[in-house]
Amino acid sequence: NAGVMQNPRHLVRRRGQEARLRCSPMKGHSHVYWYRQLPEEGLKFMVYLQKENIIDESGMPKERFSAEFPKEGPSILRIQQVVRGDSAAYFCASSPRTGVGYEQYFGPGTRLTVT
Amino acid sequence: DQQVKQNSPSLSVQEGRISILNCDYTNSMFDYFLWYKKYPAEGPTFLISISSIKDKNEDGRFTVFLNKSAKHLSLHIVPSQPGDSAVYFCAARYTGTASKLTFGTGTRLQVTL
Question: Which residues, given as ranges, of chain A have pLDDT below 50?
Answer without folding.
Answer: none
